[in-house]
């Protein structure tokens, strides 16, 4: 990599919009990771409690219902994470990079002269 390429790459990394996007992505990853760790446990034990105390279901059906609830929560979190990634990718496709916007503006000003 020559000096010009490394300078361009460093400018890209130092761009506040890119830093904001990276920190936003890390924040969402942290949120979904935390949800993936805590919510299935909460679903399992709350379902187990409800089945035992309110519906008086014990034994294997209680365990099966609790596991199904935890699995559904995990799948819901994965679905929401994938949808978030899809929306972010669609948003990135719709907004042109800053360099292209600058070039478009320069080309138009040259054409008008």
TrEMBL record:
A Pfam match: VMA21
Q: Region Disordered: what ranges?
A: 89-113
What's any GO biological process attached to this entry?
A: vacuolar proton-transporting V-type ATPase complex assembly
Q: Which UniProt keywords apply?
A: Cytoplasmic vesicle, Endoplasmic reticulum, Membrane, Transmembrane, Transmembrane helix
Q: Which residues form the signal peptide?
A: none
Please provide, in alphabetical order, the Gene Ontology terms of the cellular component aspect for this entry. cytoplasmic vesicle
Q: InterPro entries per the record?
A: Vma21
Q: Mark the transmembrane ranges.
A: 25-45, 65-83
Q: Which domain of life is it from?
A: Eukaryota
Q: Which stretches are tagged as biased composition: Basic and acidic residues?
A: 98-113
The entry's protein name is: Vacuolar ATPase assembly integral membrane protein VMA21 homolog
Q: What is the lineage of its organism?
A: Eukaryota, Metazoa, Ecdysozoa, Arthropoda, Hexapoda
